[in-house]
Specification:
With about 170 residues, this protein is α+β, with helices and mostly antiparallel strands. It has 4 helices and 6 strands; from the N terminus they run H-H-H-E-E-H-E-E-E-E. Strand 1 (about 75) and strand 2 (about 80-85) form a beta hairpin.
């Protein structure tokens, strides 16, 4: 290797160019990986914040049951029967406001940066009159994230992952 570098016939120039191109390629791949990680992390944080807002908004429905010693969302109906009362909220609207989405898409510089779709929300109400405190009021959300790669001249498939977040309500006392 040192012999090639010390060679003054100009053959090391080609070797140096190959090394520099390999380093540029590795730097580009690492940058793209970090970009995808940052986007996925930001989406997950925003989705979790939106789901926490839904769990918090259900506080008024959960409060009635909490006074009786449960943390589920139940309310007495007109027939004096307990019925489940939870609100799934407007997670997509909150998520769109936080991320600046247009129809589930985020654009940067006129290009699609990422797309969110298939948002599913499931509210897991705590069982009524349970004897244990292991079950709690939880909200789970799933969303599919699609990020086109800026590497590979559009020959590589986009990153498509399903993100899941959950938030729960536990009475403090």
């Amino acid at each position: 290797m040192m012999k090639i570098i010390k060679d003054k016939q100009g053959s090391a120039a080609l070797f140096a160019i190959v090394i520099i191109l390999c380093l540029i390629l590795l730097f580009t791949v690492a940058s793209e990986y970090l970009r995808l990680q940052i986007i996925a992390s930001g989406i997950r944080d925003a989705l979790q914040s939106s789901v926490i807002a839904v769990a918090t908004e259900n506080y008024d429905e959960v409060y009635n049951g909490l006074r009786e010693g449960y943390s589920g969302g139940y309310q007495l109906d007109e027939m004096d029967r307990w019925e489940e009362r939870v609100d799934s909220g407007a997670v997509l609207m909150k998520l769109s406001d936080k991320l600046g989405l247009i129809g589930g898409n985020k654009y940067a510089g006129g290009y699609l940066e990422y797309r969110l779709y298939d948002l599913d929300i499931q509210i897991n109400n705590a069982p009524f009159a349970t004897s244990d405190n292991n079950n709690r009021f939880e909200a789970e959300a799933w969303v599919t994230l699609l990020v086109p790669l800026s590497f590979g001249w559009e020959h590589l498939p986009p990153m498509e992952i399903r993100l899941k977040v959950n938030a729960g309500y536990s009475p403090k006392f």
